[in-house]
Amino acid sequence: MSETNGNTVYDLMGGAPTIRRLVEAFYPKVQAHPLLGPLFPEDIHPVMDKQYLFLTQFFGGPQLYSDQYGHPMMRARHMPFLITRERADAWLGCMSEAMGEIGMPDDLKRFLLERLQGPAYHFINTPDED
């Protein structure tokens, strides 16, 4: 799968409604995950709103995140949290489950997860614990 006919990934995945559904399916999984849940505040809604803005921009939609918060600088924003490979894998796993839950086609799901691996692993800032 690739971007075709001038369509962005954002367009191919269904734009704002799909990203909103994805974020809403994703964060309950994150909150329930034993490695990820403790990293997030009890009131997850501000985090969900930022994720919606970021994913919209990341997948080629409007620059919503940058318009509101400036350059994403996501690695720097994640530095206060201990991000291990195990946590990055868990994050990707929750995202995969959320994509399945909203009925995303398998080829699109694989493509998006491949795209998200780069940032997920780039945020790693500490080795896994033994």
Automatic annotation (TrEMBL):
InterPro entries, per database record: GlbO/GLB3-like, Globin-like_sf, Globin/Proto, Hemoglobin_trunc
Q: Which UniProt keywords apply?
A: Heme, Iron, Metal-binding, Transport
Which Gene3D superfamilies does this UniProt record tie to the protein? Globins (1.10.490.10)
Q: Which SUPFAM superfamilies match?
A: Globin-like (SSF46458)
Name the Pfam families for this protein.
Answer: Bac_globin (PF01152)
Tell me, what is one Gene Ontology molecular-function annotation carried by this entry?
A: oxygen binding
Q: Which family does it belong to?
A: Belongs to the truncated hemoglobin family. Group II subfamily.
Instruction: Name it.
Output: Globin
